[in-house]
Amino acid sequence: MFNNLREDFAAHQRDPWRQGVWVMAVYRFGRWRYKVRPALLRRPLSLLYKFLKIWIQITTGVDLPCETRVGRRLLIEHFGGIIVSGDTVIGDDVTLRHGVTLGLRRTGVPGAPVIGDRVDIGAGAKILGPVRIGADAVIGANAVVLCDVPAGALAVGVPARIKHRQPALQEAL
To answer: Is the pLDDT of residue 172 over 70?
Structure first.
């Protein structure tokens, strides 16, 4: 837990006032509490987590449940309006901006997004349903992604269209 917290802190430019640091600290605490044995000791930690999660939702506008599988160094670039489903899987070095939704397409229908490593998700983007976003992909601002995005591709528009980036452009990013 503490190694992940150090990496999360470094990803947020070692600034304790960035709300993404707070969100990640509560998320990592929520994941860590599952490892506490016996259950009698875990119960007060679970209660504390629930209060902290509600406090984080109110103060930052980010809903990141501990059931979500998050890789290392998730960067929450801008806070506010970020909703992540508990079934979502997020890879390493992913960037989220404000207004992003990663979740189910419809209530009661299983399947949440799987986000690859080093994915950059623009402001207001919605990634819905059992879609896979490949490594190094870029999701444009306000894109609504309902289908898989291959590695290194760009998804833009409503619904999102997949555009393959030029090799020189990929290196510049």
So the answer is: no
